[in-house]
Design a protein that fits this description.
Elements lengths: L6 H17 L11 H8 L10 H12 L21 H13 L10 H17 L7 E5 L2 H18 L5 H4 L8 E5 L4 H9 L8 E3 L9 H9 L5 E6 L11 H8 L4 E6 L24 E5 L11 E5 L2 H8 L31 H34 L4 E7 L2 E6 L7 H15 L5 E5 L2 E7 L7 H16 L2
Parallel strand pairs: 2-3, 2-4, 4-5, 5-6
Antiparallel strand pairs: 1-7, 6-7, 8-9, 9-11, 10-11
Helix pairs in contact: 1-3, 4-12, 5-12, 6-8, 6-11, 9-10, 12-14, 13-14
The chain binds pyridoxal-5'-phosphate.
Length: 466
Amino acid sequence: MAGSGHDAALAAAAAAARAWLDGLPDRPVAPAADARAMLAAFSEPVPEEGADPADVVADLVRRAEPGLMATGSGRFHGWVIGGALPAAIGADWLVSAWDQNSAMSEPFPATTMIEQVAAGWVLDLLDLPREASVGFVTGGQMANTACLAAARNHVLAAHGWDVEEAGLQGAPRVHVIVGGQRHDAIDASLRALGLGASTAVVVPADDAGRTRPEAVAAAAAGVRGPTIVCLQVGNVNGGAVDAAGAIADAVRREDLWVHVDGAFGLWARAAPAYRHLVDGVERADSWATDAHKWLNTPYDCGMAICAHPGAHRRAMGMRADYLPQGDDAGLRDPVDYNPELSRRARSVPVWAALCQLGRRGLAELVERCCRMAERFAAALSEADGVEVLGQGLNQVVVRFLDPAGRDDDAHSRAVVARTQAEGTCYPSGTVWRGASCMRISVSGWRTGPEDVDRSVAAILAAHRGS
Ligand SMILES: Cc1ncc(COP(=O)(O)O)c(C=O)c1O
């Protein structure tokens, strides 16, 4: 192999990363090249001979750059994607350089104990039960799956059924109740866990996207036996928050588990000005959330949090004779709380992000994002032919009326596409209550009032066709 040193490769990566990050305020947000162009840029036979590591990195940068989305820009507003904080990026680089298999605490004490501390900090900041268990997983999808696996264990165990040993064949039926505006991640988790997505009882949401509490209570009262209720804190479109505490109080039973998908919205618990919106959420049985959204760590990092650590461990843990096991004196093995064995130390950037922000900085980040979303909603709703259909937390849903009076759906989709192509900012599209809309998410630490004002001007120009 040509070259084995890391100095030049890391220097090339650092220079490219610095250039990328420095360029974020000025570059167009959308990528210049599409997926076909990127496939063409990388399509070639397996190289027969190796190459110098620094040349590999330089070649990677040259080919990939045109196809990169500026997710760290203050004017990136697509989906729910936060930027990455500097300390979290630096920590993430070290996670790769250190290359610790962070499944077991005995052989890999540094990263696994950082994870244990980060888990405690997250429970403190989100004000969830301090004895809850935390699994650091790849993202919201896996966090929901891990929590619902623990839920499945718990509600079946209440009926004397050991689902890990006996599986689901012949098990008592598990009733699942979900909200009408749930994220599709819940359905994917239910499918993966053998609970069935289309057999769930769907409870309607109100116009804002909140699951109707009295309808959940009625649905729960209507079923006997193991039951899982899935609620949401932060709808992916309009940011709506279910009344999770009141619902949990109303449906509480030994064989019923309340799960909350709080992929981004749970972080409002760390922001005093918005905390009242998410009070009571702590009375649920499990919570799925992400660090790579509102905490602004790089991908990938989510957290599965359970108020019943035993159920969590039974659903996720694994043991093998060749794997060392930590002692039981409160030192946790990450392998017990997530579906993977070998894994990167994805909690280290969480620790670093929390050190950079502190409790106060985290509150400011969340509050600023919410205020910027409110600024978007206020400015857009003043414009002719623009309707703000929903605004909650850091999310905004907007509809554009066709000035020619023909087709508002087609016009709204065109405004999204034109805005993305123009490059000043990048909102994304959705369908909300049957209507095509633009959705705007403010999840990044860089977004300030000037970014919002420039984005609003670009969106309105796309709406007016100018
Ligand atoms: C409410 C909600 N749940 C789950 C997810 C899935 O999270 P991830 O993309 O991190 O897997 C998202 C993503 O936006 C979300 O908004």
